[in-house]
Amino acid sequence: MNALDELTESFSRLPGIGKKSASRIANHLLKADMLFVNRFAKQIETLQQKIKPCSVCGSWTENDPCPICSDPSRDRTVICVVEQPQDVTTIENSHEFTGLFHVLGGVINPLEGIGAAELHLDALLNRVKENGIKEVILATNPTVEGDTTALYIQRLLSETDVVVTRLASGLPVGGDLEYADRLTLARSFRGRREF
Description:
Elements: H1 3-12, H2 19-31, H3 34-50, E1 52-53, E2 60-61, H4 67-70, E3 75-82, H5 85-92, E4 99-103, H6 121-130, E5 135-138, H7 144-157, E6 163-166, H8 182-190
Parallel strand pairs: 3-4, 3-5, 5-6
Antiparallel strand pairs: 1-2
């Protein structure tokens, strides 16, 4: 295996990149400007040294606490609970949410040995109790594990005065009923609202 094959193999281990895409990226780097390639290599080399979890919310940040937790204009009475740090970026890109975040670091998944103790639930409970939180939005993925985790958190927070809500789920805008799966349709019917 030569250096090009090794690099292609490494790229193919990244999520969402298959063998063909990995090969295209590796070949592109061979033809790219050396300054770009060196800068790119340095960024990868120093990524884990520069980016760490925020000590407050758990999102990726270069400065601790992160810009979201440090922003005084954010609604500090609402926390959106997500599974992973990249979920914060996804929600932020929608420009619809102006509150704070809390990253769980996963979901309850007994088959993979992940229980409630492995998630950042104690920190969430402390934030809710100590910071005057009025609403917790559960934004876990609509999977069995995500729903189980959301239900667990809802029960955990039932002893507090906080309102617990869940993101709506169902048919996407522009979606076609013909291609919707049974679970999506079921959620759409359960989550329907007055027109």
